[in-house]
Design goal:
With 361 residues, this protein is mainly alpha-helical. The N and C termini lie far apart (52 Å).
C-alpha cells in the first residue's frame, strides 16, 4: 500500500517536476549572452563542445538509468542543471562557460528518455498505463507553458542584465531538486526478473528492435524530425539579430523581443500538445506524423527564404510540429520496449537525432 502511495506521489509531482526542469530562462538570450562575451569563433566552439558532450554522455546515461535506477538518474540531471546555472552566471571566462556547457549537456542527457520512462513505469505500477498518452500530452502542455513563462522571464530580466535569467533558473531548479528527492523509482515484478546486461549487450538488444519494420520506421522518422526541429531553434536568435541590425525591431531590444517571441512559440506549442492525442485519434499516428513533418519543412523553408519582420509570425509555429507528435509517439513506442532497455533505447534514439542534426548542418 505504501509503495502504491509513493507511485501516486510520483504521478502528482512528475508534471510539476517537468515544468520546473523546463524553466530554461536563458534559452531566448543564450546567443546574445555568448556573443556579448566572445567572438563568433569562440561562440561556435562553445556550441560544438555542448553537442560533443551530449553525444558522449547520451547513451551511457540511458544505460545508467536502466541499470542503476530512474530516480538517481533524474537526480544527477537536476544537479547538472543547477551547476550549469551557477557556471553560466559566473561566466566571464571561456573555461567557466565550457564547464557550464558540459553541465548543461549532462542535464539534457541524463533527463533524456528517463523522464518519459519514469512517467510510464509509475503509471504502470499504479495500474494506469492505458492513460499514458493522455498524461504525456498533459505533461507536454505544462512543460510548454513553463517554457513560455521562462522565456518571458528571461527576456525581461535579460533586458536589464543577461546574467539575471540564470539566477531565476537556479531558483526554480531548486524546486525541481526537491521534487526529485521525493520520487521513488518504480519497480514492477517483471523488472525484478530481468537480468542487467553489460553495456555492449544492452546496445545489441536495443538495435535488435530495429528488425521490427514499424519500430524502425518510427525510430528513423523521429531522428530525422529531431534534426529538422533544431534548425529554426538554433537560427532564430541570429535571425532576430539581423532584423535588429536593419532597424526592423523598433522600440525594443533583442533580449526582450526574443523572449516574447520564444514565449509565444511555447504558448502555441502548449495548445497543440494538449490536443495531440485528440489529433492522433482523428488522423491516426502515420497521418499525424506526415502532417507534422510537412509543417516543419514549411517553417524552415519560409524562414530561410526571406528576412522580414512578417516572418516572425511563422516562427511562432516552430514548436507546434514536435508538440503534436511527442505524446502520440511516446505512447506508441514506450510499451513496445522492454523495461530494462527503455532508457537506453531512448538515449540511442536521441543520439541518432543529434547526429542527424550534425549531418543537416
Amino acid at each position: 500500500m505504501r509503495y502504491l502511495c509513493n507511485m501516486e506521489q510520483n504521478l502528482r509531482l512528475y508534471p510539476w517536476y517537468r515544468a520546473a526542469s523546463s524553466f530554461l530562462t536563458w534559452m531566448p538570450i543564450f546567443f546574445l549572452y555568448f556573443s556579448e562575451q566572445m567572438g563568433l569563433k569562440e561562440l561556435l566552439l562553445l556550441e560544438a563542445i555542448y553537442y560533443f558532450a551530449v553525444v558522449l554522455i547520451e547513451v551511457p546515461s540511458g544505460y545508467f538509468s536502466d541499470v542503476i535506477g530512474r530516480k538517481i538518474t533524474l537526480l544527477f540531471s537536476t544537479l547538472f542543471f543547477l551547476a550549469a546555472c551557477v557556471l553560466f552566471w559566473i561566466g566571464g571566462n571561456f573555461l567557466f562557460l565550457v564547464a557550464a556547457q558540459v553541465a548543461f549537456a549532462g542535464f539534457m542527457a541524463f533527463q533524456s528518455g528517463t523522464n518519459t520512462v519514469f512517467h510510464f513505469e509509475s503509471l504502470q505500477v499504479a495500474g494506469l498505463s492505458e492513460e499514458y498518452g493522455d498524461c504525456e500530452a498533459h505533461v507536454g502542455k505544462l512543460s510548454m507553458l513553463s517554457g513560455a513563462f521562462a522565456a518571458l522571464t528571461g527576456g525581461f530580466l535579460g533586458s536589464y542584465d543577461l546574467r539575471y535569467p540564470f539566477v531565476a533558473a537556479f531558483i526554480v531548479g531548486l524546486a525541481a531538486l526537491y521534487m526529485v528527492l521525493r520520487f521513488e523509482t518504480p519497480k514492477t515484478p517483471h523488472k525484478e526478473k530481468e537480468q542487467a546486461a553489460n553495456f555492449w549487450q544492452q546496445l545489441r538488444w536495443v538495435f535488435a528492435y530495429l528488425k521490427n519494420g514499424k519500430i524502425a520506421w518510427a525510430f528513423f522518422y523521429f531522428g530525422f524530425f529531431y534534426a529538422l526541429v533544431h534548425i529554426p531553434y538554433e537560427f532564430y536568435q541570429p535571425y532576430l539579430k539581423l532584423l535588429e541590425g536593419q532597424n526592423a525591431l523598433p522600440g525594443t531590444d533583442a533580449p526582450l523581443i526574443s523572449g516574447i517571441i520564444y514565449a509565444a512559440t511555447f504558448f502555441v506549442g502548449a495548445f497543440v500538445s494538449a490536443k495531440s492525442m485528440v489529433l492522433k485519434r482523428k488522423l491516426g499516428l502515420q497521418k499525424l506524423l506526415l502532417v507534422a513533418l510537412l509543417g516543419m519543412i514549411l517553417v524552415i523553408g519560409i524562414m530561410g527564404s526571406t528576412l522580414s519582420i512578417f516572418m516572425v509570425g511563422i516562427m511562432l509555429l516552430r514548436n507546434s510540429p514536435m508538440s503534436a507528435i511527442r505524446a502520440p509517439y511516446n505512447a506508441y513506442m514506450t510499451p513496445q520496449i522492454a523495461e530494462s532497455q527503455r532508457a537506453t533505447f531512448y538515449s540511442v534514439q536521441s543520439l541518432m537525432g543529434r547526429l542527424a542534426f550534425f549531418a543537416t548542418l
